[in-house]
Write a structure and sequence with these properties.
Chain lengths: ~400, ~110
């Protein structure tokens, strides 16, 4: 099976790049996959995608840059690339702002599954968020209520267009229910996020030095560190032991300059470390050194890769009390301490429960490790392949007849 | 005259799962699956009729078994859960369209004839 994947990809910094990296790494190990072509976005000048060394025994991976974040014509250039490559399957790794942070090019980009399908390839969409549950304001698409309403109506139309794909995968059960009921769609499939790595059980002990409270991600839209820094001030004033706040990651592509601004506004708060972009090889250390992983979100846009990473590395988590997030945690068996979004006092209290009680921290850490281990991404990838095979088999038994060749008798 | 009689016996391993199949219990099922596969089993009936609940981790263990069984030339048939809490994950994931499903154990055996 030759699979093309439309996605952002490291070293590209677009949302979902890390997810794509891990997904491809697992997918290429599967014997039924003969080749993977990543249809990635163009990198800034001077940056290049690494060449694959094509290790023996696993599928080769190549990267074709055929779209650009913010461009209006991505749908055309991606379709042209698919037509040229003729893969068996095209998987689009999408959220609503994958193609742009501006409404019109972002929306036009969402026509890509529909147009790609017209090439004849089995077209599948992995949709990380759905319009029905996105808080447009917090996700950077808000502002004027009239424009927000128009955006939502347009979102419904473009969701219908995306549902033209042969398969639509979503990561949260609630999304299956919403799309199935609202759009009468029968091809919506739950494909959970899965834990990136199969990691041996950690020790749950922490390194010497200050207790690290860590947050990880791309910040500025619905992930904001302002309240977390204020919570950290409260924690430092109440705890005798040395603490460190580690803000690991970069600005969201939709909010350039956010972290620099935060750094200036909170320059007076001591013991805050900004790591900048975290390279893949540094991820285990960043998580491993942390006592608590905090999710300073005020809205959610789907499942959380960071939550699964925190579970894989056996970490205690402090989480916002948000509908989707709380449901996901229950569905996937994670446990944590909840706080009210954007409330530093509430956040500080949640984090304190782990700092004050190391035994409780270890218990929750071990629990989350088991939850993450139950569903590795290496197996989630099989879910995709089984569905691809099912559809491809159906096509072989009932071959598609091009529209131009049909005739009535 | 010569009469030659040949008997074919199909080995079918039936795994009955009672209670909750979830992240915190799934390792027992995985261990059993591994043991049976290592012993040459490749046709399975998984009886979910007494399963009270199944989450995505439980589903994943069954999918893993299906892939391994098919690679070995076998098949996995699921006896449908009667509890909606266990059935829900099958419909959410549409694996009710990937697995062969049976209403009862007897019907499940028919799939191997």
């Amino acid at each position: 099976m030759r699979i093309a994947i439309v996605t952002t990809y490291p070293p590209g910094r677009g949302s979902l790049n890390e997810y794509a990296f891990h997904f491809v790494n697992h997918l290429r190990q599967k014997p039924e996959v003969s080749e993977i072509i990543i249809l990635a976005d163009e990198l800034p000048d001077g940056e290049t995608y690494p060449k694959d060394d094509n290790p023996e025994g696993i599928a080769p991976v190549s990267i074709r840059q055929c779209w650009r974040f913010g461009a209006w014509n991505n749908v055309i250039t991606i379709r042209a690339a698919v037509k040229d490559l003729t893969p068996d399957v095209v998987l689009l790794n999408l959220q609503f702002a994958t193609f742009s942070d501006q409404r019109i090019p972002a929306s036009i980009g969402l026509l890509t599954p529909w147009l790609v399908k017209s090439t004849g390839a089995l077209t599948a969409v992995l949709l990380h968020n759905i319009m029905e549950t996105v808080d447009l304001k917090k996700a950077g698409f808000g502002g004027n209520p009239i424009i927000e309403n128009i955006t939502r109506i347009a979102g419904n139309i473009f969701t219908r267009m995306m549902l033209k794909a042969d398969l639509v995968m979503v990561t949260i059960p609630k999304y299956v229910d919403i799309l199935t009921e609202k759009y009468s769609a029968e091809h919506i499939i739950l494909a959970p996020h899965g834990a990136f790595e199969d990691i041996p059980e950690p020790s749950y002990e922490l390194p010497d030095g200050p207790l690290q409270i860590m947050t990880f991600g791309k910040f500025g839209t619905y992930k904001k560190v302002d309240s977390l820094i204020e919570a950290f001030e409260i924690l430092q004033s109440k705890h005798a032991e040395p603490l460190e706040l580690v803000i690991a990651g970069t600005d969201s592509p939709n909010t350039p300059g956010y972290l620099e601004d935060v750094q200036q506004r909170y320059a007076h708060v001591n013991n805050v470390r900004y790591t900048g972009y975290v390279a893949e090889e540094d991820v285990p250390r960043i998580f491993g050194d942390s006592a608590v992983v905090v999710f300073p979100y005020n809205s959610t846009t789907g499942s959380s890769g960071v939550l699964h990473q925190a579970g894989s590395y056996g970490k205690a988590v402090a989480l916002p009390n948000l509908g989707d997030f709380a449901e996901l945690i229950q569905d996937e068996g994670y446990q944590g301490e909840f706080f009210e979004p954007d409330d530093p006092q509430s956040m500080a209290e949640s984090i304190s429960k782990f700092i004050d009680d190391p035994a409780y921290r270890r218990t929750i850490s071990a629990h989350n490790f088991v939850a993450a281990s139950g569903l590795p991404m290496s197996e989630v990838v099989d879910w995709y392949l089984l569905h691809f095979e099912r559809i491809l088999d159906q096509r072989q038994t009932t071959p598609l007849v091009p529209q131009s060749e049909t005739r009535s008798s | 005259m010569q009469i030659k009689t040949t008997q074919y016996t199909i080995r079918i391993d039936v795994i009955e799962i009672t209670g909750r199949l979830e992240a915190f219990t799934v390792s027992d099922l995985r261990d059993e699956q591994t043991r049976l596969l290592d012993n040459g089993a490749h046709n399975f009936v998984i009886d979910l009729s007494h399963t009270e609940f199944m989450d995505s981790a439980g589903m994943s263990a069954l999918v893993s078994l299906l892939k391994q069984a098919r690679q070995a030339g076998g098949e996995v048939v699921l006896v449908k859960p009667t509890d909606p809490a266990a059935y829900r994950i099958l419909t959410l994931t549409r694996f009710d369209k990937v697995f062969q499903m049976a209403d009862t154990l007897d019907v499940a055996y028919e799939n191997f004839k």
